Amino acid sequence: MLCPVESFFAIHQPARGTLRAHPETNMKKLLLALAITSMLAACGKKEEPAPAAVAPPAAAPVAAAPAPEAAELKVAIDPTYEPFTFKTADGKPTGFDVEIASALCEQVKRKCVFVEQVWDSMIPGLNAKKYDVIISSMSITDERMKEVDFTDKYYNTPSRIVLKKTVKFIDAASIKGKKIGVLKGSTQEKYAMGDLKPAGVVVNSYEAQDQVYLDIKSGRLDGTVADFMEVTGGFLSKPEGANYQLVGPDLKMPQYFGYGAGIALRKGEDKLKADLNAGIKAIRANGSYKTIADKYFSKYNIDVYGE
């Protein structure tokens, strides 16, 4: 098929044998030739296809937001109170209190951070906001409740007097002149000062319970007053305690020893208190409490949760 220009050119060709045209006619022919040339150029141009649309790059998948880290719960401990709070050979805190604290942190969705504190500075440190709670065998007493709040108890064991096996014990008066070491600021110190010292017993107070045992071992003390489970696991069951024994009855008078060990926290921390109380109930119900208690106390055949 002819290009439209070629058709046009074929129509306008001069017939063979015609006469030469007039100059004006020649000018028209020149203009016509130029127009035909332009039309031929346009007719010969191939139409290029439009470039294909480029698809936008696929959006990179949005990474899932990382789970928020659990808020810290700073827990004060005195790591000199085996088997409740002490240190492993590599310096890590461990013991019944420490494992109970960790189980409770799991329940309340917090991250336990343990803070070591000298015993008689525990409550001042709590009220100064150095930590959030005390989980370190602190007995719930009327005197302490004037300064801080407590959760429900998480264990309750009696205290006992421990003396050399060569010392005959009948009552406080029978050990007049004997030297007894106690932990400063403890319920045992309160008992010793209230019942033993008036009977003539010499009462020495120490910053840490393990210092008491060092002085017993060195011969500077005749005995101690301590929590039954602590003194059994931390002293009497070891070689240095072989020549010592428990004497007298269980000591659990509320005016001295309170109502069991609870978690101390600042007054007004009602939500934290409720969460921790719920946590204590939960670990008692789900078996975690029994697992931890059995680990430390099953050989003594005692229910540390107590009455």
Would you mind describing this structure in some detail?
By secondary structure, the protein is an alpha/beta fold. It has 2 domains: 128 residues, Periplasmic binding protein-like II (D-Maltodextrin-Binding Protein, domain 2), CATH 3.40.190; 99 residues, D-Maltodextrin-Binding Protein, domain 2 (3-Layer(aba) Sandwich), CATH 3.40.190.10. The protein has 11 helices and 12 strands. The strands form 3 sheets. Strands 4-1-5-12-6 form a 5-stranded mixed sheet. Strand 8, helix 6 and strand 9 form a beta-alpha-beta unit. The longest helix has 22 residues. It starts with a helix and ends in a 10-residue tail after the last helix.
Describe this structure in a few short sentences.
This protein has eleven helices and twelve strands. Residues 1-23 and 40-47 have low confidence and may be disordered.
Number of strands: 12
C-alpha geometry: elongated
- List the total number of helices: 11
Distance between the first and last residues' Cα: 113 Å
| CATH class call of the largest domain | Alpha Beta
Spatial arrangement of strands, main beta sheet? 4-1-5-12-6
Classify the fold: give the CATH topology of the largest domain: D-Maltodextrin-Binding Protein, domain 2
Secondary-structure element order, as H and E? HHEEEHEHEHEEEHEHEHEHEHH
Estimate the helix proportion, in percent. 25-40%
How many domains would you count in the coordinates?
Answer: 2
Uncertain runs are 1-23, 40-47
Structural class: alpha/beta
Indicate the CATH architecture of the largest domain. Answer: 3-Layer(aba) Sandwich
Strand fraction equals 15-25%
- Could you report the average pLDDT, rounded to the nearest whole number? 87
CATH superfamily of the largest domain: Periplasmic binding protein-like II
Please summarize the sheet with the most strands: 5 strands, mixed
Rg, nearest Å: 47 Å
